[in-house]
Design goal:
The complex is a heterodimer of chains A (236) and B (274). Chain A has 236 residues and is mainly alpha-helical. Chain A has a single domain, classed as MetI-like (MetI-like fold, Orthogonal Bundle), CATH 1.10.3720. Chain A is built from eleven helices and no strands. The longest helix of chain A is centred in the first third of the chain and has 34 residues. Chain A is globular, with a radius of gyration of 21 Å. The termini of chain A are far apart. Chain B is of the alpha/beta class and 274 residues long. Helix content of chain B is 42%, strand content 24%. In chain B, the strands form two sheets. In chain B, strands 1, 2, 3, 4, 5, 6, 7, 8, 9 and 12 form a ten-stranded mixed β-sheet that branches. In chain B, strands 10-11 form a two-stranded antiparallel ribbon. The chains are: A mainly alpha (236), B alpha/beta (274). Chains A and B meet through α2, α5 and α10 of A and α1, β2 and α8 of B.
Chain lengths: 236, 274
C-alpha cells in the first residue's frame, strides 16, 4: 500500500515537472485518437441517421452486425490490419505498417461501430416531429440531418466521449500496427505495457493518471453541459 | 452551425497533417530486436552513440525473436538482431536474410525463489539444475512465446531427454520482464538472459541459482533483410548500421554498457557466417 502511494506521488511529480518524453507519449495518444475520431465521426453519424430513418432490406442485419462488431477485441482488429498492411499483405505497398496512420486506421475501425450504434439510438430517441417540422418548413435532407443532429447533440456528444474513451484506452491494435516505436508510435497504453514489463511502475502509473484525469474532465464537462441545457429548457 | 462546420474543417486539416507527417521522408531504418536488448537499455545506449556519427534514425521494434524474424521475412523491417542460432540459420538458409554477423553475447541464468527449495544452486550443470526442479516438482515459468529465450529453454529440456510436463511448469506467454515478475510473485524458478535479470533484480524477490554453464551462452546476430525479396528495404542504411555495430566503435560501446557496474553484453563480432 505504502509502495503504491509513493509510486503515485512520484508519478504526479514526474508529470508536473513536464518530462518531455512522458508528454511526447501523451501527445502521440492524442493526435492518433483525435484524428481517428474526426475521420470516423461524420460517416458514422450519417450511417446512424440512415439506419434510424430509412427502412430498407437488410437493415436489421446491418444493425446486428454493427452490435457484434462492438464485441471484437482490439487485438483482433490489430491483427487483421497488421496482415493487410504488412509487406507480405495486400496493402503492403502503402508502406503504412508501424506508422501513426496505421494506428489511426485501427482506431477508426474500433470507434466506427460504437459511434454508429450510439448515434442510431440517439436518433431513434429523438422526437420525430423535429424532422417532420423541418421538412414542412422546406428543409432539404442535408438541412434536416443537421437540424436533427443539433436536436440530439448531447446524446451524440456522449457517443463521441464513449468512442474516444474506447480508442484512447486501447492497447491491442496500437501495439500490433504501431510497433511501439519511441517518438513515433509509442502512445500511453503501449508505453504502460512496456514500462511494466521493465518493472518501471512509476512511469506506468503516471501515464495511467493522465488517462484517468482525461476521462474525468471529459465526463464532468459533459455532465455539466447536460445539466445546463436542462436548466435552460425548463427554466428552473 | 457555422461553428460545427469550422470544427469539421479544422479536423480534416489536422488529419491530413498527421497523415502527411507519417510520409515525410527522413532517412530512417527499422530494426526488429528482442526485448532483452531493448528493455535492458542497451539499444537506447547504442543509438545515442550512433546518432553522433550518422543521420539515419533507427526505429526500434522490440518483440520476441520468433516475431522479429517473421517481421524481417515479411519485409516489414530493414534489419533484425536476435539470439536464436538455429532459427537464424534457418532464416538465412531460406533466403529471408543476408549478411548474418555475430555482434555480442551474454548468457542465460537460472533464477529462483530465495529459499531455493529445489537446491538448484548445488547443481553443477544446467541440465542437472533443471532436473532438480522437475524432480521436486517446483514451479517453473517458461516464456512460451517462441522467443530466443524460450527456444533455448526448450533445447535444454531436450538435452535432459525429458519434456517439461511436470505440474509446476507454466507458460507465461509474455516477455522476460513480465515473466520474471510473475516468478517473483509466486516464488517460481525461471530462465532469464543475464541483461534483463540484472536490470530487474533489485525489484524482484528472486536470486540467481545457476550460471556459467557453457550451454547457457547466448549469442546475438544481426542480419539484413534480403533485398532480392524486398526491394523497398532501406538496405544501404541498414548495412551501415550493422557495420557500425560490428565495427570498433559499436563494439566498444557494447562493452562499455553497464548496469550497476556490471557488464551486460560482451562484444564478440568475430565469426562471420556466410
Amino acid at each position: 500500500m505504502n509502495d503504491l502511494w509513493t509510486t503515485c506521488v512520484t508519478a504526479i511529480i514526474q508529470l508536473l515537472s513536464g518530462d518531455p518524453l512522458l508528454w511526447g507519449i501523451v501527445g502521440v495518444s492524442f493526435s492518433v485518437s483525435v484524428s481517428a475520431l474526426l475521420v470516423a465521426l461524420l460517416p458514422a453519424l450519417s450511417a446512424g441517421f440512415v439506419l434510424a430513418y430509412f427502412r430498407f432490406p437488410g437493415r436489421w442485419i446491418a444493425i446486428s452486425l454493427l452490435n457484434s462488431l462492438l464485441a471484437v477485441p482490439t487485438v483482433v482488429v490489430g491483427l487483421v490490419l497488421y496482415m493487410l498492411l504488412s509487406r507480405a499483405g495486400p496493402l503492403g505497398d502503402l508502406n503504412l505498417l508501424f506508422t501513426q496512420p496505421a494506428m489511426i486506421i485501427g482506431q477508426i475501425l474500433l470507434c466506427f461501430p460504437l459511434l454508429v450504434a450510439m448515434s442510431l439510438t440517439a436518433f431513434q430517441a429523438a422526437d420525430h416531429r423535429v424532422l417532420e417540422t423541418a421538412k414542412t418548413l422546406g428543409a432539404n435532407p442535408w438541412q434536416a440531418f443537421v437540424t436533427l443532429i443539433f436536436e440530439v447533440r448531447f446524446a451524440l456528444l456522449a457517443a463521441v466521449v464513449a468512442a474516444f474513451g474506447r480508442i484512447i484506452a486501447e492497447v491491442g491494435s496500437a501495439m500490433m500496427v504501431g510497433g511501439n516505436i519511441l517518438h513515433h508510435t509509442r502512445n500511453i497504453t503501449t508505453a504502460i505495457a512496456l514500462e511494466t514489463g521493465k518493472g518501471e511502475f512509476v512511469q506506468g502509473v503516471a501515464l495511467g493518471i493522465v488517462l484517468l484525469v482525461l476521462a474525468l474532465v471529459l465526463n464532468v464537462s459533459l455532465g455539466w453541459m447536460q445539466s445546463r441545457s436542462r436548466v435552460l429548457r425548463h427554466g428552473t | 452551425m457555422r461553428y460545427i462546420q469550422l470544427l469539421l474543417k479544422r479536423g480534416a486539416l489536422a488529419t491530413a497533417l498527421v497523415l502527411l507527417s507519417g510520409l515525410v521522408l527522413a532517412d530512417s531504418i527499422r530494426l526488429a530486436t528482442t526485448t532483452s536488448t531493448y528493455n535492458s537499455g542497451l539499444m537506447g545506449y547504442l543509438l545515442s552513440h550512433y546518432a553522433k556519427v550518422s543521420n539515419t534514425e533507427v526505429q526500434v521494434i522490440s518483440v520476441g525473436t520468433g516475431k522479429a524474424l517473421k517481421m524481417a521475412e515479411n519485409g516489414d523491417v530493414d534489419l533484425v538482431m536476435t539470439h536464436a542460432p538455429v532459427a537464424e540459420a534457418h532464416f538465412i538458409d531460406q533466403g529471408f536474410g543476408i549478411e548474418a554477423q555475430r555482434v555480442m553475447h551474454n548468457d542465460f541464468v537460472l533464477v529462483g525463489p530465495k529459499d531455493d527449495k529445489a537446491q538448484v544452486s548445488g547443481a553443477r550443470t544446467v541440465t542437472q539444475g533443471l532436473s532438480l526442479i522437475m524432480a521436486t516438482n517446483q514451479q517453473f515459468i517458461s516464456r512460451g512465446d517462441d522467443s530466443g529465450t524460450h527456444k533455448k529453454e526448450l533445447q535444454l529440456w531436450q538435452h535432459l531427454g525429458a519434456l517439461p510436463t511436470f505440474d509446476g511448469y507454466f507458460e507465461s506467454g509474455r516477455g522476460m520482464g513480465h515473466s520474471l515478475q510473475m516468478a517473483s510473485e509466486i516464488g517460481a524458478y525461471t530462465m532469464s538472459d543475464r541483461g534483463t535479470w540484472l536490470a530487474l533484480k533489485n525489484k524482484l524477490e528472486l536470486r540467481l541459482v545457476l550460471e556459467s554453464d557453457p550451454r547457457l551462452i547466448n549469442p546475438y546476430q544481426v542480419m539484413l533483410v534480403n533485398p532480392k525479396r524486398h526491394g523497398h528495404a532501406n538496405i544501404n542504411s541498414a548495412r551501415q548500421f550493422a557495420k557500425w555495430l560490428v565495427g570498433a566503435a559499436g563494439q566498444e560501446a557494447i562493452g562499455n554498457f553497464r548496469i550497476d557496474d556490471e557488464v551486460l553484453f560482451v562484444p564478440s563480432a568475430r565469426s562471420i557466417i556466410q
